[in-house]
Amino acid sequence: MGSRLRQLRRERDLSQASLAETLGLSPSYVNQIEHDVRPLTVPVLMRITEAFGVDATFFSRDDDSRLLAELQDVVLDKELCPSPVELQELSELVYNHPSIARTIVDMHRRYCNVRDKLSLATDTRHRSSSEALAMPHEEVRDFFYARQNYFDDIDKAAEKLARDLNLQRANNRSTEEALVTRLHSHGVSIHLAQSTDIASPEITPAGSTNIAPPPQAAPAAAPAMSSIRRSHSNLGADTTQHRFDAETRRLYLAEELSTGQRCFRMATELAHLEHDLVDKAIADAGFSGEAAAALATRGVASYFAAALLMPYTSFHSEAERQGYDIDYLRQVFGMGYETTCHRLSTLQRPGLRGIPFTFVRVDRAGNVSKRQSATGFHFSNSGGTCPLWNVYETFSDPGTIKRQVAQMPDGRTYFWVARTVRHRSAHYTQPDKLFSIGLGCDIRHAHRTVYSQGLDLSNLGAATPIGVGCRVCSRSHCAQRAFPQIHAELHIDAHRSSVAPYD
Asked: Any idea where the HTH cro/C1-type domain is (predicted)?
């Protein structure tokens, strides 16, 4: 427990004497705890959780699971570690020296980026070496991953703005009016635009009582504000949903967006106009290139938008009260299924934590296009994901929620809820998008969700055995294995066959 307490003290910029005074202990007692000479007793642990607003699991070995899994990936790389390393040794390194373990993982990740992209950099025909080596999406993914998908100052600023604007839950029309008015205070006008080149008449400016209807029947989600104008400008691409022109201070929104979707796009632009917190978070991250910084900026602005439209305290309260019922929450806050799930994965405010969820979005081909984790669940960087995972089962029954108790090779068990979402296009010639959205948590939190009803969570023997990916999965007898293990020698008997292809 000592290293964890020392980490907490340094994060709060406290001396041992200051920490001792806060906890009502002697400085020598704190010193002995930090050096693992004395145990961290339950009464002292309760004082720490109350004083610093951290979950008691902050001091649990379970919180090291993600770092331990990442360190296992490092030692499985035979180019760097030809001799096997016992799991117990890795566990002790992670537990006693987490900073060193994290440094090793970071060094290995940088090494892999260079190694894996070197051939591309030297063989490229149309790009420079620096462009070939740059992997903005991976850099941004690590940026959110390292922060457990939670930004405290941004979250609290968004919640304060929601109070200032008096945003009403389950009333998207009222929310839209409040957002439009706020944007007007920044000199920004809102314009509906078609995503094609077809022009349409402009709605009369704000304040007019003679508002011309659109050329076709107004959709159910037509804007409630006369100050939203219909524009001759198109958005520049068939799939563009919003665009902000900084010179003219015009925000263009695709006219086929629902009220909730319009609110979300307006909220993302407010993130830049209200605070410099987004820019500060990006500047502090020290991204290697403009592409990564821009991608992260968009991601953090979207985080602000979700925090504004689903304020933390209110959202957390409803989630806890309703057993994290996604469909209930999306109706109460007027957001889509995917956006609501993503918000659930961010509930990590000190002193008011929700269930630490892992959020994932995959397509039929197994590509993981979004992944954020507040848990110890580890995504492998070697190969794809596991076909036994229930996120892939959802494609055979679109729109239906699938539940799964899944066990990893190291014995850790998780509870997963997955469902497909379809992003419908505005035109027949544009293809729809179909994804599977998964939310997972450690099995010890499953009983807090409405989705665990009717399941025997104590029968872990019935859990589905899954892995982080075939290349690093240790399950040698898996019939679904697509690739042999990268850390084991491949022995093939030409005169023997089995269900498992690489048994």
From this structure: 5-59
The 3-state DSSP class for residue 252 equals: strand
Last residue of a domain, which of 87, 108, 129? 129
Give the residue carrying structure tokens 């609110």: 263
CB 346 within 8 A of CB 356: no
Region 434-444 average pLDDT: 92
d(CA 18, CA 254) in angstroms, rounded, equals: 55
- Residue 206 CA, chain-centre distance (Å), reads 38
**Cα–Cα distance for residue pair 53/56, rounded to 1 Å:** 9
Contact 485, 380 (CB under 8 A): no
Residue 214 lies in a domain: no
What tokens does 492 get?
Answer: 């093939």
pLDDT in tens, 81-107: 777 788 778 888 887 888 898 889 888
3-state secondary structure 299-343: HHHHHHHHHHHCCHHHHHHHHHHCCCCHHHHHHHHCCCHHHHHHH
Check the CA dihedral 162-168-174-176 and report its sign: positive
Asked if residue 86 belongs to a domain, the reply is yes
CATH number at residue 32: 1.10.260.40
**CA dist list (Å): 227 to 111, 181, 218:** 53, 9, 16
DSSP 45-81: HHHHHHHH---GGGGSGGGGHHHHHHHHHHHT-TTT-
pTM of the predicted model as reported, rounded to 2 decimal places: 0.71
Question: Which of 495 and 133 is assigned the larger pLDDT?
Answer: 495
| CA 255/CA 224 separation, integer angstroms | 13
Residue 379 has pLDDT above 70, yes or no: no
Residues in the chain: 503
Strand 189-193 and strand 228-230: the pairing is parallel
Nearest-10 Cα torsion for 79, 80, 81, 82: 30
In this structure, are 461 and 405 located in the same domain? yes
The total number of structural domains in the chain stands at 3
Helices of type H across 65-151? 65-75, 87-96, 98-123, 129-133, 136-146
Rounded distance between C-alpha atoms, residue 495 and residue 503, angstroms: 13
Residue 30 lies in a domain: yes
Alpha carbons 325 and 169: distance in angstroms, whole number: 16
End residue of a domain, out of 309, 331, 349: 349
CA 159 to chain centre: 19
AA identity, residue 450:
V
